[in-house]
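Order emerges. One example.
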Amino acid sequence: MMNKGSPLETGSNARQLLGMKGASETKNIWKLRIQLMKPVTWIPLIWGVICGAAASGQFNWSFQSVLASIACMIMSGPLLAGYTQTINDYYDREIDAINEPYRPIPSQYVSLTQVRQQIWVLLLGGLIIAYGLDVYANHSTPVLFILALIGSFISFIYSAPPLKLKQNGWLGNYALGASYIALPWWAGQALFGQLTLATSLLTLGYSLAGLGIAVVNDFKSVEGDKVLDLKSLPVVLGIESASWISAGMINLFQLGIVIVLILIDQHFAAVLLLLLIIPQVVFQDIWLLRQPMLFDVQYQGSAQPFLVLGMLVTALAIGHSPLVHSM
């Protein structure tokens, strides 16, 4: 029996608050609301805003700029990513009843009415902040508001029928990767500078590496996906093939970014990014390619920090590249 206050129980409680697999159950409504928002998923969006600000080449450490960047992070992470995760749980309640019955909705500790209320509060809060940031940045076109609307729409059709993009392994995973990498990057860059075609295409390329990360997230839902006939890549191609595709996408498109950095004369950044890819390959061999179903969490915890550091290296290089900003 698990002792109260034991490391195992503490870890299970922490997973509950973060919205991670293997969480403990709780009846506390505020803990349930936080779990629906999956705080662990906010990190890449917050980081994406930081990368976008760095890529703008115009961020400064004034009080106003820091406050604006924090507001943009809150919009992208707790509010709109929280909206995305809550609406995903709402439409995935049948799958979660199979894969993760301890989650708030299948455990029946939170009502569907409360979940719908949370979805609207998070969505409207994110859109209001986005518009306020456009006013702050003196945008003639409300760029951040438009980006927030696009991201919210993608989140809806990713989870909700009849489109339910997540039913298609390739399309759904790319939509997820773009939402978590490109959109917050664009928001951060538009807040402090100007979006260019070159940086937009580059971040969409980086989102293909994000597709590989999204495949890893599908491993935990394989059983439920099979029962409900959802065509995730691990279901369609098998666990082993999907793990190799995941690793290949992550590595291939980061190497593509290395080539781009060389072409824009950012050679030091290219070398740094290449060095950051190496440990990712090592952790893929240790965790992802051998037993992805068992070690998916360990892989993400060990390899993804190097991926996101590579994103920042790339963003800083773009911010200092006159070639990119002239395109």
